[in-house]
From TrEMBL:
It catalyses: meso-2,6-diaminopimelate + H(+) = L-lysine + CO2. It comes from the Bacteria. This is Diaminopimelate decarboxylase. The modification N6-(pyridoxal phosphate)lysine is found at K57. It comes from Phototrophicus methaneseepsis. The gene is lysA.
């Protein structure tokens, strides 16, 4: 199931009042569900030297990051703003991992400032960009033709990572610089719910790790298996069997007694614990039936960008309501501004509230301002039932902010 029963029970009885109080649209996140999922994740890997570095890009809101930090997560950052966010909520250097690609010297300097963090390098040539010799680094492996799935694509076409054959030279170059502690990283599957598919890619990573250890003459400090744990977006999707995954990894880890297990999950941790609440504002009949809502793809890109499915519920519709087949659309001048295409939904009227589910990861954060569409507010349903606004909606002033103070910036041919 997309939205958990618990979240539904915590949210829906008060949703009309919450929507009236804050106005629509908004993403709302469930503190209780997020904490439960993190605890389930840590429990599954209990006994292993396991660390989760939450992929900040999934839900870069400091109020959420604070909850995750309280639950013991570190943070996987890929840009300077993400580093700043992690530091602002007080994450110490050992809880920050910097993974990027096509990285500049300035970004490495920012990552290594403040005592530094775990650095994950996407190419050996980037060693020359480091402002100083870090304590520990990992390299990201691109396994070539062996694995992959639709969001990340075929590894040999992906811009990420270092080909397997080139890894040994990369570690040698790092050793030559005086770096002594190493890890190995891979992130080749995304939104994968098949534990066996994850295990196949972790097994391959472990094979390569053994070869690297042999070459280095000592153990790797950590192996980072990346994120990519999938969630059921469709009602009939089977959830990932975390127990199977953890059991398989435990078996592989018996060969790595000295090595920490890093994971950088985003979607799995927060994805199911957010919904986009939007109000129906128009109905239209043309060659199809359209339900127009007050959110646009500026609030949620995934359907338009990947054709991703997000389950939609109509608040208060009885289970036996008669349905109609509709496209649920926003207001952007782009025909892919649709939250659902040819979906059977209970018949709606303007004023009805829709819950577009599983927006807790790669939802608000992927939003953009094309067509002058402003991004919506984010709310947090606290464990005690209160609802806090944790990000306001964008305003016209935000939209125009980058046009201010540009007058002095002029070049002309002398
Ligand atoms: C996006 C990303 C993740 C998180 O992916 P999820 O699918 O949200 O688990 C982890 N690691 C890296 C390097 C990423 O780019």
């Amino acid at each position: 199931m997309p939205m958990s029963d618990g979240f539904r029970q915590r949210l829906t009885p008060n949703l009309p009042q919450i929507a009236a109080h804050f106005g629509t649209p908004f993403h709302i996140y469930d503190e209780t569900g997020i904490r439960q999922t993190v605890r389930t994740l840590f429990a599954a890997f209990d006994g292993l030297p396991f660390r989760e570095f939450f992929a900040v890009k999934a839900l870069p809101n400091p109020h959420i990051l604070r909850i995750l930090a309280e639950e013991g997560c570190g943070f996987d950052c890929s840009s300077v703003p993400e580093l700043v966010l992690a530091r602002q909520i007080g994450a110490p250097p050992q809880n920050i991992l910097f993974t990027s690609n096509n990285t500049t010297s300035e970004e490495f300097a920012a990552a290594l400032a403040d005592g530094g963090s775990w650095l994950n390098l996407d190419d050996a040539a980037l060693l020359a960009r480091l402002p100083r010799v870090p304590d520990a680094i990992s390299f990201r492996m691109n396994p070539g033709s062996e694995t992959g799935n639709t969001i990340i694509g075929r590894p040999e076409e992906a811009k990420f990572g270092i080909p397997r054959e080139a890894l040994a030279d990369a570690y040698r170059a790092a050793q030559a610089l005086g770096i002594q502690r190493f890890g190995l990283h891979q992130m080749v599957v995304s939104n994968e719910r098949d534990a066996e598919a994850h295990l196949a890619s972790v097994a391959l990573l472990c094979d390569v790790a053994r070869q690297i250890q042999e070459m280095l003459g000592h153990s790797l400090d950590f192996i980072n298996i990346g994120g990519g744990l999938g969630i059921p977006y469709r009602p009939d999707d089977a959830p990932l069997n975390l127990g199977t995954l953890a059991t398989g990894i435990r078996a592989l880890w018996s060969d790595f007694p000295q090595t920490q297990l890093f994971m950088e999950s985003g979607r799995y941790v927060t994805g199911p614990h957010g919904v986009l609440v939007t109000r129906v504002i128009n109905r239209k009949t043309s060659y199809r039936q359209y339900v127009g809502v007050d959110a646009s793809m500026s609030a949620l890109m995934r359907p338009g960008m990947y054709g991703a499915y997000h389950h939609v519920d109509v608040l208060g519709a009885p289970p036996d309501s008669s349905t109609e087949v509709v496209d649920v659309v926003g207001s952007l001048c782009e025909n892919n501004d649709k939250f659902a295409v040819q979906r059977a939904l209970p018949i709606t009227q303007p004023g009805d509230l829709l819950l577009i589910q599983d927006t807790g990861a790669h939802g608000h954060s992927m939003g953009f301002n094309y067509n002058g569409r402003l991004r919506p507010q984010e709310l947090l349903l606290r464990a005690d039932g209160r609802v806090e606004r944790i990000r306001r909606a964008e305003t016209l002033d935000d939209y125009f902010a980058t046009l201010h103070d540009v007058d002095a910036a002029l070049w002309q041919n002398p």
